[in-house]
Amino acid sequence: MCGIAGFVGKKKIDEYLIDQTLKSMRRRGPDNQNYKKLVLNRKHHISSILLNSRLSIIDLNKRSNQPFSKHNLVISFNGEIYNYQQLKNSLEKFGYKFNTESDTEVILSGYHKYGLNFFKMMRGMWALAIIDKKHQKVVLSRDRFGEKPLYYFKDQNNFYFGSQISQISLLSGKKFRINSKQIFNYLCLGYRSLSKFGYEFFTNIKTVNQGSFVVFYKNRIIKKKYWKLNYQPEQKKSEKNYIQQVKEKLINAIKRNTTSDVPVSLLLSGGIDSNIILAVVSKILKKKMMTFSIVDRDKRYDESNLIDASVKHSNVKNQKIYLKRINIQEFIKDLRKKINYNSKPLYTTTSYISSKLHNKIKEKGFKVALTGAGADELFAGYYDHGLHFLKEVEKKKFKSELKSWKKNIFKHVRNPHFKNYKRFLKNNYYTDHVFFTNDNLKSLIKKRAYSNFSDKKFCSDTLRNRMLNQLFYETIPPILNEDDQNHMFSSVENRSPFLDTDLAEFSFKIPTKFLIKNSQTKYILREAFKDILPKKIFSNKIKKGFNASLDSLIKRDKKSFNHFFSDTNKKIYNYVKYDQLKKLFFKKSLSNSESMFLFRFINCSIFLESFSS
Q1: For 137-170, b where at least 16 C-beta lie within 10 A, e where not — what string?
Q2: Does the pLDDT value for residue 417 go beyond 90?
Q3: What's the pLDDT tens digit per position in 99-151?
Q4: Strands (E), 296-425
Q5: Per-residue pLDDT tens for 558-599?
Q6: Which residue in 134, 193, 381, 470 has the fewest CB atoms around it within 10 Å?
Q7: Tens-place pLDDT, residues 223-278
């Protein structure tokens, strides 16, 4: 895991700016920092700079430090290629020689042999930049799900890129204008809107899309997708066959994700996803793994009893962090530090509390942490999936499935749109629940300037279409972005075994009818591992995850309000009505969506004060 940045163009960038840019990347890779200057075209004064900040995970030897040069190519690479050994063996048959044990060198030789087609052969997570000196071009690429971030910006004669926007700002010397549209989307629609409409928090900043590459050549940008996923059910296989294949593919994915030259840890909740990872590692791979958990004493989010059952079942060590309220000054100071580092607001309370885990993971000497991201989107794990499933289920099963949903799920649902399930089921394309969950929040906003919701059409199956939109536009992109930024703040690499290419492609071949059974979400996944999971976790139907209310973090009182909220000259009040916000703040009890809105308000206010001109 690393930080990458670079530039191609006519601008002359001095050593001081390079040094400042490397300093901004240090948390992403404290083990080694370096850069390379290249002349691409003397006649037209085109040069390039490639920077890298390394967190050593595979081949810890300095021979694998970056930027790395070979075949008249130079690379700065962030990520892990899990099948690099197989790719290396294949390339050796063509006569390629290797001087390191790193995946970085394999990428360059693979690109030299296959060009842009090599990205299709790679399995893993990455954001990379390759300078092709012979053809005077730069190639940027991201993995299939966008686990690693990569931004870029082009002005008249120059092209800049980096793992974070701060590197682009430093190298270009520009202070980018805040994008008000994204501010409104963030405040009104929440984190799921942030990758939905193609906006960033700053104008002119672009992101390399997941499963895509960008080529900068002769002052032009060429963009192309090298991978896509869709629902293509294989109807002839049995339920038993799907269960067995999911089991095999996920075990292989977890095995690949635990390959490391440094110890690997796990973020453990009471949910099925992280517990499957733990059970596979301990019961099948026969490895010990340190686990880390957040505990909120708020009953809505407390999973300590499930975590304890899991830890006992797998006989592993667990480090718990108990959430406690801190004063508003300390809270704001902590948020400001992270917002300034990320150049954006934190998306959710989950982002904030997870960062406390990452600090503890680093403190305990770990450089790698596994997460359960992606399982819900691949195997149908959200509450709304159960309702979408009812739209697709056979008529003869509808009554029994609805009865089971009402009995087992309804009482745990907080979203008012899910509670009004009759309306949900009547509408063939009901998506009101995706963003606003409390209509009264709309009254806080000064003008209706947020984006209009529309789903991308992947397929006619309503459940699968929802899952694919979540996978590529709504939940996974912002979650992965936050995971990367927050882990890297503590110099820890995050890995997501469920976001394995082979597993993902197979999961969308499973007919929808097998995804949920008797209101039990992720049915196929649960059945695949029921023999190694604690019974309490296998049968649990309540979804909590890493989460917390604002009231678990700070005290909402007059002192807190006067310290941060009472200044009506704050830039945030160009977007939000002060009087309405004050009423919400002092409300005795907050709903989940109201709590999230206040958290976004605080973050957005800090962001605007830090980055507005």
Answers
A1: bbbbbbbbbbbbbbbbbbeeebbbbbbbbbbbbb
A2: no
A3: 999 999 999 999 999 999 999 999 999 999 999 999 999 999 999 999 999 99
A4: 318-322, 368-370
A5: 999 999 999 999 999 999 999 999 999 999 999 888 999 999
A6: 134
A7: 999 999 999 999 888 999 999 999 999 999 999 999 888 999 999 999 999 999 99
Q: Which two tokens stand for residue 593?
A: 């969506």
Q: Which single residue is written with the structure tokens 């704050």?
A: 570
Q: Give the distance, in angstroms, between the CA of residue 584 and the centroid of all CA atoms in the same chain.
A: 30
| Other beta carbons within 10 Å of 233 | 16
Burial of 365 (0-12, 13-18, 19+ CB in 10 A): exposed
How many CA atoms does the CB half-sphere of 375 hold within 13 Å?
A: 26
Query: Rounded to whole angstroms, how far apart are CA atoms 153 and 93?
Result: 39
Strand-pairing partners, residue 321, are 294
Partnered with residue 76 across adjacent β-strands are 129
36 φ/ψ angles, rounded to the nearest 5 degrees: -135, 135
Question: Cβ contacts of residue 560 below 8 Å, gap of 6+?
Answer: 328, 554
The SS3 of residue 338 is: helix
Cβ distance 189 to 451 under 8 Å?
A: yes
Backbone dihedral angles phi then psi of residue 73, each to the nearest 5 degrees: -125, 150
Can you say whether the dihedral through the CA atoms of 301, 305, 308, 313 is positive or negative? negative
Band the pLDDT of 466: cuts 50, 70, 90. very high
- The residues facing 4 across adjacent strands are 52
Q: What element of type H or E holds 7?
A: strand 2-9
- Round to whole Å and give the CA distance between 434 and 415: 10
Residue 74's φ and ψ, nearest 5 degrees, are -130, 135
Q: How far apart are CA 163 and CA 481, in angstroms?
A: 10
Count the neighbouring beta carbons within 10 Å of the beta carbon of residue 512: 20
User: Which helix or strand (DSSP H or E) is residue 50 part of?
Assistant: strand 46-54
pLDDT tens-digit profile of 530-567?
A: 999 998 888 877 776 667 789 989 999 999 999 999 99
Helix/strand/coil for 513: helix
> Would you tell me how many other CB atoms lie within 10 Å of the CB of residue 267?
23
